[in-house]
Amino acid sequence: MKFTIHLILFVLICLLVPMYSNWLYMAPLGALVGFFIPYRKTISSFAYSFLFSFLTWSGAAAMIAIPNDMILAERVGGILNISGTALILVTGLIAGLFMGLSAASGHSFKQIFKK
Amino acid sequence: MKSIKFLILSALSLGFVYLLSNPLQVKDTQLPALGNFFNPFEGFWSNAKTKPISLDAATFPVLQEDVQVKIDVRGVPHIFAQNMSDAIFAQGYLTAQDRLWQMEITHRSASGRLSEIFGKRALKSDIQNRKIGNEHYAKKRGQKWDEYAVGDEKIFLSQYAKGVNAYIETLDDSSLPFEYKLFNHKPEAFQSLHATLIVTKMAQRLCGREEDLEKTNLLAALGAEAFDYLYPDYNKAQSPIVADTNQVSYPKGSASAEQTVSFYDHEPFEKPNPSNGSNNWAVSGDKTRSGKPILANDPHLGMTLPSVWYEIQIHTPTMNVYGVTLPGIPGVIIGFNENIAWGVTNVSHDVTDFYKVDWADKAKTKYNYLGEVKAIEEIQDTINILGEEPYIHSLKYTELGPIVYSEAEHPEQDLIMRWLVNEDPTNFELSTFIDLCKAKNYKEYRAALSKYSNPAQNFVFADNSGDIAITVTGKFPVKEEGQGKFIYEEITENNLWKGYIPFDSLPHAYNPSNGFVGSANQHSTSPNYPYYYNGRFDHYRGRILHQKLSKMDDISAEDMMALQNDSESLIAKDILPTLTAMVDEGDFNALKKSMLQMLRDWDMKFDKTSKAPILFYSWWTNIHKLTWDEIDVLAKDRAVYKPGDWRTIEMIKEDSSSKYFDILESEAKEKASDIINLAFEKTYQELEGRINEEAYDWGKYWSAQVLHLSKLPALSHPNIEVSGFKYALNAIRGSHGPSWRMIVELDDYPKAYGVYPGGQSGNPASKLYDSNLDAWTKGDYYELQFMKSPEDDRFGSDYNTLTFKKI
Questions:
Q1: Residues of chain A found within 8 Å of residue B31, distances taken between Cβ atoms
Q2: Whether the predicted interface score ipTM is above 0.90
């Protein structure tokens, strides 16, 4: 159950916040979710948060890149010396690390108060 | 322990937030904030959501009437407006929608404001553009244009700017053009001044080239006799644009310009690319299959992405015109209407003179000018540099122009630059293009050209009544023989310009008996033209154009396309038979013999599948290099340049024992034949391992490039295999070449073809970013959809239809 809630919340945060507001606000919301979703270990909070955010942003990027026949993905990838597909993964990686660390911070904050 | 873990994770998290939300500096390149850039909803990914432009419910109260636009499958807008003002507004909007960043970079480049975006790597060019006073003079020019503008001219620049700005207002973080995100800046509102600066930039490319500093150093080092021998003004093999100018007379003054002998140690400013040039011609109905004239034009400029040209049709009740313009400049610069077609090539005269500053005080605040002491106009100028402290310098202006070279320790080296483009205009100079868009015949063409100033162009013309013509057009200073070639030691009445050549005395041809007119940046006239000029002229394309057109009859549009794509060059015809005759093949090995045979069998075409052009080019380059070691020695001390290819060829053929063929480092006394043999040996050494490789051909050796303005390879096409050569009509040289090829068959209603190496869209995510490139590479053309009305379905019905609504 908690995975499903975590997944839904993270997909919503990673989609709606950057769509309607500054993407940086994803961080405090991610920390909040990390605080409340009761994983035993901080590493689990990080790993699932990473995964869900990674999938959301790389998925969103792929949904744009594929109808564009990867034209821009390949060109921007070319600037960074990587392929268009790798560029989609890098997009996911940025969200994954960003949100993973936020959630882990939230989670570890809660751990302070746990006996 | 738990607190420490929290602190570490929080610090990591905050560090990551900081990293993602701030621009990254990698060496001298600033990268955008990664979080902003990669964010799929606002970052670069949102530029990949390409969809046809739509105006939705937008209204534009500035319009007098609604404007209908049809955008064809190549992204070319066809604007149907009820008046010029509305049409130009729509042109501004649509051009910005495709090319906003390009427009901004072009005017920033002219005014010297690129460092604000690209950091200190752009500083050198910014300093140069500020020292020569581009913005200073563009402002003055803009003010004069406002004063002189009448009728449609009054709204020409302002309506265009309003259109651009209306588009800018629609932008948000997500829809910002890609490069703004990549280089982390925001669009500036477009002003009329920016259009003026873009005109300046074009002038700089086309008539900003001079070698006065280098020539002066050469004169000082070599003496007048040797200088005139090595760098003559006129090539007798030349086929001038207008050979017969006997109708023009001008009483020459007796005093010839004085020549200086001082050396100047300045590092010359970066010069515009020598390959900026063009071809144009028109053939009369007597020579065509249709019995009506055909006009062709291919301007050779930097082949960039976004492309240098923007294609457009503008239809109003008083005009229906199709052609190309530079993003940032309204109207059409090269094109055709229902009655006439016109095209341009660069005139290439030297219209820049330098004068030594005669300081009147040690503090360099006053200077002597024609017997008077004048104060310098001095401006403290600040160049803002991304990520660095601003660069502050002072700009100094005199009556004649800016002081462009100034050294604290050597005031005798300080120089004033007088550039024709900076002279006060006497009319709204862009009116030539407005009038050409509307012109119906030869008389109106000539009237339009009479208002033109600079950059001087050869305007070729044809109309559907059967007339063809060419005019060397622009403002040209009246000079005495030799005037303006070298730096003047002082400013005197005698070495200033003596007015301008009257329009009717400019070289022009109208329906000549040979049935064609044309130009390819060669000399404007034969030496008997009474007005003196010098410059940097083409020596090969104009001649071959003349030869080929003379022989052609029953000409079709396809023949003209083939001629624009012709890769034959007269440089090979001029010298190769001499070279192969002079080479000593006595002890040649098999490969050398086969290399020589390849050259003897060559058809002199710089064809991409051929190997012989590689051998010729390498051999000729080595000959030129070995010959001009004397100039290399001079170049170690100060700025000079080498004699041209044509003069070197002339010397080999006419003066093969000249002392200049002697190699300074060797003890022997070499002649031209020795140089030729040594150069062949060098070519053999360079190419012996490669020349027989199957895949090694001219297309790979000479490969063309179409580069994004940022030069980023991933946004460019850095290796395009095409036929052509800098001295062929298909004048390809690296990232320079035919930037627009246009053929117009005049008739009751014209039929036209065109192509350029790029695409209408500036968005690297769009298919239209480079969609014309394949056709251009193959030498193919598109039929241009010159519509009669918005309902015209002669080209099908595949259009995106937009309406700019007034309310």
A1: none
A2: yes
